[in-house]
Amino acid sequence: MKKITAVVAMLAVTAFAGVAFAADVIELPASNGKITFNHKKHADDVKDCKKCHEKGPGKIAEKNKEWAHKNCKGCHAEMKKGPVGCKDCHKK
Fold first, then answer.
1. Contact of 68 with 86, CB cutoff 8 Å
2. Which of 75, 66, 8 is nearest to 48 (CA)?
3. Taking the model in full, what pTM does it have?
4. What is the residue range of 67's domain?
5. What is the pLDDT of residues 51-82, one digit of tens each?
6. DSSP letters along the chain, please?
7. Based on the structure, what is the number of domains in the chain?
8. Does 34 fall in a domain?
9. How far apart are CA 17 and CA 20, in angstroms?
10. Which whole-number Å values give the CA distances from 86 to 26, 41, 91, in the listed order?
11. 11 assigned to some structural domain
12. How far apart are CA 83 and CA 65, in angstroms?
């Protein structure tokens, strides 16, 4: 019984470690200037990790220009909050 409890505890810690140790601010390289992304602010404001992390905690595998323009700009426009212009995100 102790082994099962230990395994369950280990799995729970592993599953939620990505959330606990996620960087507050992430800098993403882009061809037309770096993008600074405040992960903590988004997590606090959006409160639904699945909006970006459809497959659960961790890095976004399909993160690229098309994904960001569709998801990030789309969410900002939908919420009427956040940058939607090129120079709002891409800082040289």
1. no
2. 75
3. 0.61
4. 23-91
5. 888 877 777 767 788 888 888 899 999 989 88
6. -HHHHHHHHHHHHHHHHHHHT--SEEEE--TTSEEEEEHHHHHHHH--GGGT-TTSSS--TT-SHHHHIIIIIHHHHHHT-S--SHHHHEE-
7. 1
8. yes
9. 5
10. 18, 20, 9
11. no
12. 15
Instruction: Tokens 């992390």: give the residue.
Output: 53
The vertex-83 CA angle with 78 and 86, nearest 5°, equals 120
Residue 5 maps to a domain: no
Residue found by looking up tokens 């729970």 in the block: 12
- Does residue 85 fall inside a structural domain? yes
Position of tokens 């891409």?
Answer: 90
CATH number of residue 63's parent domain: 3.90.10.10
